[in-house]
Amino acid sequence: MLEAIKLSDGMNITKIIYKCNLNYQYAIKLLEDLAGRGVIQLIDYKGGIKYKITATGIKYLNDLKSI
Predict the structure, then answer these.
(1) What pLDDT sits at residue 28?
(2) Which residue range forms the structural domain that includes residue 28?
(3) What is the dihedral of CA 26, 32, 36, 39, to 10 degrees?
(4) Among 31, 29, 61, 25, CA closest to 43
(5) According to the model, what pLDDT value does residue 35 have?
(6) What pLDDT score was predicted for residue 9?
(7) Residue 42 maps to which CATH number?
(8) How far is it, in rounded angstroms, from Cα 1 to Cα 52?
(9) Which pLDDT score, from 0 to 100, does residue 2 have?
(10) 47: which of 10, 15, 56, 67 lies 20 to 30 Å off by Cα?
(11) What is the pTM of this model?
(12) Are 45 and 13 in contact, with CB atoms under 8 Å apart?
């Protein structure tokens, strides 16, 4: 999920669900958890929400890749 969000300049929930092949409810729980940890940020965009990875999220993703 983080890799998909990183590759775009912000991604809405529908694109995340399709790109990652996730259930809507599960995706929302994951996104809320990641936002709470400061790994992603929520951006208001044209009446909706886009999700964007933060610097902390990029570091977290790089740490996961190095394992």
Answers:
(1) 95
(2) 2-66
(3) 80
(4) 31
(5) 95
(6) 82
(7) 1.10.10.10
(8) 11
(9) 92
(10) 56
(11) 0.84
(12) no
- Residue length, the chain? 67
**Token pair listed for 5:** 């969000």
DSSP letters of 2-65? HHHHHTTT-B-HHHHHHHHT--HHHHHHHHHHHHHTTSEEEEEETTEEEEEE-HHHHHHHHHHH
- pLDDT tens digit string along 5-47? 999 888 999 999 999 999 999 999 999 999 999 999 999 988 8
Could you give the dihedral angle defined by the CA atoms of residues 66, 55, 17 and 65, in that order, rounded to the nearest 10 degrees?
0
Domain count, the chain: 1
pLDDT at 11: 93
